[in-house]
Amino acid sequence: MNHARTAALRLAGGSSLREALGRTSAESWPALDQAVRDLPSWELPAYAAPDTRWLRWDWNAPLPSLRRSRSRRAESESENVIALCHPDGRIREAALDRVPGSPALLPLLIVRCADWAAPVRERARLLLSEVPPADLAPHADLVLLLARREQGGFAEDLLDRGVRGGSAAQVESLLASGDRATRRFAHRVAVDRGLLAPGRLARLAADSGDATLQDLCADAALASMRDEDHDDVLGVLLAARAPRVRAAGVTALRRTGRHHEARSRLADRSGVVRACARYVVRQGGADPLPLYRAMCGGEIAEPGAAAGLGECGDPSDAETLWALLDHPSPAVRVHAVHGLRALDAVTRDRLSVLIDDPSPAVVRAATRALLPDAAGLSRAWLTERDGPDRPRAVRVAAQRLLRAAGHLRPTG
């Protein structure tokens, strides 16, 4: 029995929302809404008292008017919840009048704003528009979840206007939300309102694992950066783990007139960062190709130089890269393979020896390079490498190549 259905049954038995749901999330409210309306009548308690007859699942029974037939006692929270989620839209609409003054029911009011029945939806929206924006912000995750529905835009617009016109502290409280959509929303508002300093934006971009926030915060940091912020902002962006953030920092070197600093990024481990570095170096009047040749011709300290040479070199540079396949560093060998692929200089017979390389990373890189020409590899040679005595990386490579050559059935 899933959590929402269990909660619905508990509510039908008279439990409070807190007792029935426990800890809530944005997803729990639409799930509860659906679970209540899915409950069959025999799983509901027998509502015999005159004041609870409206909680009916008998579609042939007459519909009482909730607005004119109120009980002398206050309706329980559980009855209100069931009414707000009732399959009959007329009961849902009438139950909305019980929401004002009941903060615990606010999430269900938000749900009803996206109701498929227009009368329910319109009544819910009128009531939600009277809710203070500060009370709506804590439910941003639910509002943004429901915004994906066809009728979910009303609450989102209210939230947006309220947070944009609210206090900076309110926006700050949403920045660290556990909900990704809420974090994105809060960061967009904070950027638009200019609430975050360039240095903080740079750190947010560098620390985030969300590509959308990385782009948003890095771009905003660079757009708002003043001369005195250059070292702080660029230093953070260039040291970031995410390639897209480092790439933003490298590109900004051109704008700040620090083209020469891009040379140290030519051998970055990321292809997109290397491409940005080459652009900035060229804008500064230098040619990155001789720099790559110099890096690859001696003691290679930065493995990415091998890939960079392939990305901007010419066919004459292929032999330099072939020689690097014997380099003691697995990272250099991997990037040399990438460089050969970029030059379209892969030769099956010369590269196939790397399938037996002791480094799994090198084996994977060589496999990807050989896949287009797998049919030209000896089936017996590949089958031998699929034996139980071979390392796992070699067996996986042999199976991929056998499959690409048509010797094995595709998996899945």
- SS summary, helix count: 25
**For the report, how would you describe the main beta sheet?**
none
| Helix-strand topology string | HHHHHHHHHHHHHHHHHHHHHHHHH
Given as residue ranges, the uncertain stretches (5+ residues, pLDDT < 50) are 45-54, 62-75
Please render the helix and strand layout as text.
Layout: H1 3-12, H2 17-21, H3 28-38, H4 77-84, H5 89-95, H6 106-112, H7 118-128, H8 133-136, H9 140-146, H10 153-165, H11 168-175, H12 180-193, H13 198-207, H14 211-224, H15 230-238, H16 243-255, H17 271-283, H18 288-297, H19 304-312, H20 318-324, H21 330-342, H22 348-351, H23 360-370, H24 379-384, H25 392-404
Helix pairs in contact: 1-3, 5-7, 6-7, 9-10, 11-12, 12-14, 13-14, 13-15, 14-16, 15-16, 16-17, 18-19, 19-21, 20-21, 21-23, 23-25
Annotation keywords:
flat, mainly alpha, 412 residues, 25 helices
